[in-house]
Structures are given as structure tokens and as C-alpha cells.
Amino acid sequence: MDKEIKKLLAQIVHPETEQNLVAGGMVEQIVADNEKINVVIRLAKTRDPFAVKIKNQAEELIRTAYPQATVMVTIKEGGTAPRPEPKQKTTTGGIAKVIAVASGKGGVGKSTVTANLAIALRNMGFRVGILDADIYGPSQPKMFGVEDYLPEAVREEDTDRIIPAESMDIKLMSIGFFIQPTDALLWRGAMAVNALKQLIHQTKWGTLDFLLTDLPPGTGDIHLSIIGELKIDAAVIVSTPQQVAVADVIRGVELFRNENVNIPVAGIIENMAYFTPEELPENRYYIFGKGGARRYAEENGVNLLGEIPIIQSIMEGSDEGSPAAGIDSRVEKEYRQIAEKIVEKVLKSC
User: Fold this and answer.
1) How far apart are CA 328 and CA 121, in angstroms?
2) 101/282 Cα distance (integer angstroms)
């Protein structure tokens, strides 16, 4: 979508410089999805007399092309927009497959699912890493008991490389390593995006079969940024059975299915699907409702990868820094079945 919007903006010529907005380096930022399009245009001259005209032209062109979206064009004055930087050197060349783990809303256990999926893949013999991209609520350091890890950097090819944490044979990088647990990460979108780009491209990942990216809940700038920086091979959506959670799944699925994103959705995982007491192993209690994610999957042509029950060791493992799939055979079995389906889908799409 960004390329199409740039083509539209290239039609607008500044009357004084006689350059179009794109060629003149005046387009500073484009953040776009199906619902919202935000464009920042920077003009060199303070109090540019053509600012309002250019803003109106840009908004009209974009609204005509994308009538379903809310369009906002911001004009900044003074200084020129930075020229595009040369393509960044990256450490992601040794990563074979990238899987995005997402959720439509918070509180569904997405980070717990990511951690246990990583362990299940490791148990299957794969080399696995996790990028904790939930930049406003990083959980993976606690999940793996490495909250006190302080990343070091090494100099390679005139670039600093960040050494990831390693726990249970999983390589792990998180913004949580760079902030205090009590800090409120009140970053503007651009700051958060820049931090994530650094973690993606400067972490010394080495050779990995799978990199799982633990995305923030919902859809937004962070998601679009990661999609632009990493070649994501498949997305997994995590939900709980409640209708309110399933309703939010739709937005997550449609983000990845969008023609401008076009990332295959491997399927949905229904977390906290039911509770079975140890003393009554044949009983299932559907505390949060029954089968909401399954119904959505069946009605919308999405695969249901599995239903994860409520098991006490899952909660305890997250709190104690040891994902339950590594210590509880019941949990490992549930996650291995899901991991096998994901691997089959990802490798089949190659």
C-alpha cells in the first residue's frame, strides 16, 4: 500500500520547487492499513504558502483511491525530509522461517503460547529463537527466567551485533532487556518502531530454523513495521473461547489476509479452552464458553490448530521462568500437536 500511496503523492508538484513530493524528498512518513492512512509531508520552508494547498491535494487523492480509509495528512515545515537510508545490514540471513504469533486483544495468553510453541519446536529438533516484539508489554524475559540478562554487543563488519539471551536452547531478544521492569514504556510510535528495527537487524541470531515473533495485541504501527522488516512465512492467531475475544480475531486474520500484506494464516489456537481437574480426567468444564474460535475457523476457512486446556503447570511455568512444555508431558503433547501442524503448513507453502 505504501508504494501505491507514494505513486499518488508523486503526482503533486510543489509550485515553487517544481519537484513532486516524492522526488523532492518531502514525504517523511507513511503509515497505512485498510482502516487508517497517515502521511507526514515535510516542507523545507517555514510558513510555506503552498502548505494548505498541498495538504488538501494529498488528502483528496488518497481519499479518492481509498474511500474506505480514514485519511490524515500532516504538514511539517522547516528542514527537508531525510533521504531514504541505504539498505540496512541485517543479521537475519540465517533464519529459515519466521512465524508471527498475534492476537486481536490482550489477555488471551499469546506470550505463553509463543514460549511453549518454541519449546515444542525445540523438542522436535529445530533451532528456535523468539523476538519479543510486544514492545509495550514484553513478557518473554520472565517466561524464560532471564529478566536480569544484560545484552552485550560485539563488533562485526563495522557494525555492533547484540548477543541474545539463551534459555532452554532458545535464543531470545526483547526490549525488556533494555528497560527496568517498573518503567512505563511511553514511546511514540516512531521510537518504538526504530527500537524494533534495531533488535531485528542487529541481534546475532545465527542459524535458526524458526524465529517466533511475539507481536503486540491488536493491529497497528508495530505490526506494519515488522511486516516490512521481516519476511514472515506464516501467522498464528491466539484467542480464547469468549465471543468478545473471537470478534477481535477477525481483525487479526484480516490484517494478514489483506492483499497488501498477503501473509498466510497458518491457523487459530484457542487458548484456555476448558478445564479438566486432575482427579476427574474425563470431565471438561468450559469456563470461558465453548468453541468460539472453532466456530469462527470453520465459518471463515481458517484452520483450528488446537485447543489448549487450562493446566496449572502452564501458569506456574510462566511465573517460574520455565515454560510448561519443557517440564509437563501433558502440556508438551498439546503444543507438539500444534507445532507439527504449523511446520507442515509452513514447509508445504515453500
Assistant:
1) 15
2) 31
Q: Residue 150 half-sphere exposure, CB side, CA atoms within 13 Å?
A: 1
Q: What angle do CA 92, 164, 314 make, to 5 degrees?
A: 105
For every residue of 244-310, DSSP letters joined together read HHHHHHHHHHHHHHSTTT---EEEEEE-S--B--TT-TT--B-TT-SSHHHHHHHHHT--EEEE--B
Q: Tell me the C-alpha to C-alpha distance, in Å, between residue 347 and each of 202, 234, 344.
A: 27, 10, 5
C-alpha cell at 148: 536480569
What does each of the 350 residues of the chain score in pLDDT, given as a tens digit?
788 899 899 999 988 778 898 888 889 888 888 888 989 998 887 777 788 889 999 999 999 999 998 999 998 877 654 444 445 678 888 999 999 999 877 888 899 999 999 999 999 999 999 999 887 788 999 999 999 999 998 988 778 899 999 999 999 999 888 876 655 455 556 677 788 888 999 999 999 999 999 998 877 667 877 888 888 999 999 988 877 767 778 878 888 888 778 899 999 999 998 888 878 878 889 888 887 888 888 888 889 999 999 888 888 887 888 898 888 888 899 999 999 999 998 887 65
